[in-house]
Amino acid sequence: MKVLEFAFDSRDGSGRVYQPHNYPQNCVAYVGTHDNDTALGWLAEADPADTAFAREYLHLDKAEGENWGMMRAIWASTANCAIVQMQDLLGLGSDGRMNIPSTIGNNWRWRARAGFDSPELALRLRRQMELYERLSQGGKGEKA
Prior knowledge:
Blueprint: E1 2-3, E2 28-30, H1 39-45, H2 48-58, H3 66-76, E3 81-83, H4 86-89, H5 119-131
């Protein structure tokens, strides 16, 4: 299990193993899990030196969407499986966070709002899956 947000945490000396260029093929990669802040929430709330490093390493920019840049990093990795939360696909901040460990109340309440599944989002996600060859076998755009 590789969590991208951990790659830039200066409080933890093991960050390098969470950087996508170090992922083994036999792992599951996440931007964050249900216990972490969303990608945009993390960028807004984490230590500024950590987020500056993440922005440089991941080549994040507002034009692409910093959340999309973080997702792109795990999709482009060699990890056999890459999982992103719907909140990151939707570009939500900390208000979309699912859970804060060791707290009571207000956890597990986030729900996708009606209309979240726009054709534009589906096409953008589909294109990313084609680019990084993450479609199921037999999917259009996949290598034979």
